[in-house]
Write a structure and sequence with these properties.
This is DUF1801 domain-containing protein. It contains 3 helices and 6 strands; from the N terminus they run ααββββββα. By secondary structure, it is an alpha+beta fold. Strands 1-2-3-4-6-5 form a 6-stranded antiparallel β-sheet, covered by helices on one side. Strand 5 and strand 6 form a beta hairpin. The longest helix is centred in the first third of the chain and has 17 residues.
Length: 130
């Protein structure tokens, strides 16, 4: 069993259902991505760059796209001081498969270079030009 499935299995029944559905949809749409537990949460990477992940918050499961603010998706909420955006779920029925699939496609095309952010002293550059 994968570390990510272990993470999912450690959640409450309702949150496990959310995490398992996210895991399935992300793996279907980012089959070439590397996935692992990173900073204690499941995260998917393309060429070493974090793309998407999820984590258990106090009252929800947060789905986070590292470059999500550039997706121009009104359902995603800005998170933090860089380019990340999030969606929070309290029930697996709230996960819209078509939205999530579209966001995952955008996560492949629209990437900011988080992999080298420390080397660049906090400067975030776009990997693929607009």
């Amino acid at each position: 069993m994968s570390q990510i499935q272990d993470y999912n299995n450690s959640q409450t029944a309702e949150n496990k259902e959310i995490c398992d559905l996210l895991l399935t949809i992300i793996n279907e749409n980012l089959s070439d991505a590397e996935s692992k537990i990173w900073h204690a949460h499941p995260v998917w990477f393309l060429d070493g760059n974090p793309i998407v992940g999820y984590s258990k918050l106090k009252d929800s499961v947060r789905l986070l796209f590292w470059s999500g603010q550039s997706f121009e998706e009104e359902k995603l909420q800005n998170e933090g001081s860089f380019k990340a955006a999030e969606m929070r779920y309290t029930n697996s029925n709230q996960i819209n498969h078509e939205d999530l699939k579209r966001w995952l496609e955008k996560s492949r095309e629209i990437q900011w270079d988080y992999k080298n952010i420390v080397k660049r002293k906090g400067e975030l550059l776009r990997i693929k030009p607009l």
